[in-house]
Amino acid sequence: MLCSPLRLRATLAALLLPVLLCAAAPAAASTDGAASQPRIIGGVPSPSAAYPWIAKLSVATPAGTYLCGATLVSPTRLLTAQHCLEGATKVTAYIGKATWTAGVMRTSTSFVRGPGVKKGDWAVIKLSTAVKATPVKLNGAAKLDDTATFRALGWGVTATGGASAVLQEVDLPRQKPGTFDCATTTAELCAGVPTGGKDTCQGDSGGPLLAKNGKSWVQVGITSWGKGCAQAGNLGHYTRVSTYLKAIQAAIAGA
């Protein structure tokens, strides 16, 4: 079985040590020889109640159970990455707490998926019952896509193995299309430190990339993929919410 040239940022729930997973799994591995550093790199723990719309996903598939992030975008809908739901038969979500085990639990077997990585890596999950929490705001303004510094959130596994129990956050400078490995496209946003050291990684897929709009956070991106993690010249790639907002809103409003 050949591995993907990309490292998608979902991770296997049973992972005890940093490993590279092949194409059958959502957490496809890099074949560029890069060392695996599977977590939000260079971040800090998030305050316990700072992001009431954040969610951790446990995604059941025939190949195993995978971990991703998501955001609450309506009382009954979550937004995540399309590649997190490949082969999904059931999703269990934990919503609203930095320590994910304390979150409100909901389940789902109903999904609307976007086209996929590099061409619309988004998906909407319909929850079994509503959640009483304020949803995150989704970006429809192009000016926020040009924010100088974004914030990413996630529960990627730690450097020593095993999933992080506490939500991590990291601030990442925006990088313009055409710089480093950032393609000129409206499908994605790129963020990261050119010299490396800060990034999202496995287990962070589907989580939000945020921009500050006044006193509020607005979701501008969805964690999607990267070549390695936190390495010089290789950025994090995030689905651009504003490009797919109409399709996402239609999925949120759908039955």
Automatic annotation (TrEMBL):
Listed SUPFAM superfamilies: Trypsin-like serine proteases (SSF50494)
SMART domains in the record: Tryp_SPc
Subcellular location: Secreted
PROSITE patterns linked: TRYPSIN_DOM, TRYPSIN_SER
Keyword Signal (UniProt): yes
Organism: Platysternon megacephalum (big-headed turtle)
Protein name: Short-chain dehydrogenase
Domain of life: Eukaryota
A GO cellular-component term linked to this record: extracellular region
Signal peptide limits: 1-29
